[in-house]
Write a structure and sequence with these properties.
- By secondary structure, the chain is α/β, with parallel strands linked by helices.
- It is built from one helix and three strands, in the order H-E-E-E.
- It has one helix at about 1-15; strands at about 20, 40-45, 65.
- A three-stranded parallel β-sheet has the order 1-2-3, with no helix packed on it.
Length: about 70
């Protein structure tokens, strides 16, 4: 029960995240769960190996800055 409550708390905090910087991690894909980050305003993904973004990105309605360039 404690573990489940802790996971829920972490998930709730992540959904309130407004800025996420994942630059230079050589990520090849992102999970659909990114669509749950509805408070996200800034996302920096430069320096990764992404060929596409998940359809769930359409749920990021607060997103104002998206950086995908290779650095």
């Amino acid at each position: 029960e404690y573990r489940r409550q802790r996971q829920m708390c972490i998930r709730d905090r992540l959904t309130a995240l407004t800025e996420l910087i994942l630059v230079g991690n050589e990520l090849a894909a992102l999970p659909d769960a990114f669509g749950q980050l509805t408070a996200l305003t800034t996302l920096k993904l430069g320096g990764n190996k992404l060929a596409a973004l998940p359809d769930a990105f359409g749920q990021l309605t607060a997103l104002t800055t998206l950086i995908l360039c290779f650095i």
